[in-house]
Design brief:
Layout lengths: L18 H6 L37 E2 L12 E2 L19 E2 L3 E5 L2 E5 L5 H12 L3 E2 L20 E5 L8 H13 L14 E6 L5 E4 L5 H4 L6 E8 L5 E2 L2 E3 L19 E3 L6 E5 L13 E3 L2 E3 L2 E9 L5
Parallel strand pairs: 1-13
Antiparallel strand pairs: 2-3, 4-5, 5-14, 6-7, 7-8, 8-17, 9-15, 10-14, 10-17, 11-16, 12-13, 12-15
Subcellular location: Endoplasmic reticulum membrane
Main location: endoplasmic reticulum
Membrane topology: Single-pass type II membrane protein
C-alpha cells in the first residue's frame, strides 16, 4: 500500500531555554523542574546512545507553526535583576540572551526557531540575491555527471557572504546563528560557517532527499565536514515546499524508499523562522536519519537561506 501522510496543526510549543542545554543535557534521566539548578555539563552534543525523549505532543507528520503575537527581537536582551548576569571576561558579554526554539526531533536532532528574523530582514536578503541567481548545482559522487543527476535539484540559488551585504543584515543573522549553534562548541567559530546559499524554488521545483554531509566512501577524503545545517525561511509558501525528513525516528528506512516521495516529518516554511538539524553524531559519523529534501512547490514561491556549519574551516 502507498505510504499515507496526514496533516496536523498542533499548538506551537516553544521552549525558552538556552540551546546549549538541549544539545548537551543527557536525556536518559527525567528533566528537572524549571526551578531546579541544572548540574554543570561539559560535552557540547548529545551522546550517540541517547534514547529518544518523548515530546508532549503526538508524533507529527506536518508541522505548521501558528504565529500569533508580535515578533521577537533578533537577540532578546531580557531585563535582569541584580545578580542575574555573571562576571564576564574581556571577550564575554554583560547581558543575558535567550533564543526561543522548539525540539522537533531527536532522530535526527532537529530544532525549530520561530521568528528568528524579521520580515524586513528576510526581504532584504531576497533582494540582495535576486540578481545573482543561477541554476543550483550538486556535489557529484564518484561516477556521477551533470546529466545523470539532472532533476535532483531544480532550484536556482546564489552564494552570498555576509561581507557582501552593506546593510549588515546578513552579518547580524550570521552572528545570531552562531549564538544558537556553535559559540558554545569548542574549536568551532565563525570561520566554520559557509557563505549563505540563498535559494528560490518556483512551482514544481524541488530537491530530492539527500545528505548535507559528505560520505568519504562516495565523495573521497574530506578535509572538513558539514556537521549541521541552518535553514532560514525567507518567505511563506502557499502550498508545498516543505522540508522533509523521511527517516525521522527510523521510519521508512526498510521500505525501499525512492528518495523522491515527500514523506515523514515535514516542516512548512514560514517567513522569518529557522530550522537547525545535525548531520553528524558527536563521534563524527553520519546520522542516517538526517536524510532530508525539499518537497515540490505546488503554489507560490519558496525562498530560503541555508547556512552550513563545518567542524573546521575549509582550506
Amino acid at each position: 500500500m502507498p505510504h499515507q501522510t496526514t496533516t496536523t496543526t498542533p499548538q506551537r510549543e516553544t521552549t525558552i531555554l538556552s540551546l546549549m542545554l538541549i544539545t548537551i543535557l543527557p536525556v536518559s534521566t527525567t528533566l528537572p523542574p524549571m526551578s531546579t539548578t541544572l548540574p554543570p555539563v561539559s560535552t557540547p552534543l548529545l551522546p550517540l546512545s541517547t534514547p529518544v525523549l518523548p515530546l508532549s505532543t503526538p508524533p507529527l507528520h506536518v508541522l505548521d507553526v501558528n504565529r500569533g503575537g508580535s515578533r521577537h527581537k533578533l537577540l532578546e536582551d531580557f531585563p535582569r535583576e541584580e545578580g542575574d548576569s555573571m562576571y564576564h571576561g574581556e571577550s564575554g558579554e554583560s547581558f543575558v540572551t535567550s533564543i526561543p526554539f522548539q525540539i522537533l526531533s531527536w532522530r535526527p536532532r532537529a530544532l525549530y526557531f520561530p521568528n528568528f528574523a524579521t520580515d524586513e530582514q528576510c526581504q532584504s536578503v531576497i533582494e540582495l540575491a535576486k540578481s545573482k541567481l543561477k541554476p543550483s548545482s550538486l556535489a557529484l559522487r564518484k561516477g556521477e555527471t551533470a546529466e545523470t543527476t539532472k532533476g535532483i535539484r531544480t532550484s536556482s540559488g546564489a552564494f552570498i557572504s555576509a561581507s557582501e551585504d552593506r546593510t549588515g543584515i546578513l552579518e547580524f543573522i550570521e552572528e545570531k546563528i552562531a549564538r544558537a549553534t556553535i559559540k558554545h562548541i569548542t574549536s568551532i567559530d565563525l570561520s566554520s560557517l559557509e557563505a549563505f546559499n540563498v535559494l528560490r524554488y518556483e512551482v514544481g521545483q524541488r530537491y530530492v532527499s539527500h545528505y548535507d554531509s559528505f560520505n568519504p566512501a562516495e565523495y573521497g577524503p574530506q578535509k572538513s565536514q558539514r556537521i549541521a545545517s541552518f535553514l532560514l525561511y525567507l518567505s511563506d509558501v502557499e502550498e508545498g515546499g516543505e522540508t522533509m525528513f523521511p527517516f525521522e525516528n527510523g521510519s521508512n528506512m526498510n521500505i525501499g524508499y525512492d528518495y523522491k516521495s515527500c514523506i515523514g516529518l515535514k516542516v512548512r516554511p514560514r517567513r522569518g523562522d529557522g530550522l537547525l538539524f545535525y548531520s553528524l553524531f558527536p563521534n563524527g559519523t553520519i546520522d542516517k536519519t538526517s536524510l532530508h529534501g525539499s518537497c515540490p512547490v505546488v503554489k507560490g514561491e519558496k525562498w530560503v537561506a541555508t547556512k552550513w556549519i563545518r567542524n573546521k574551516e575549509r582550506m
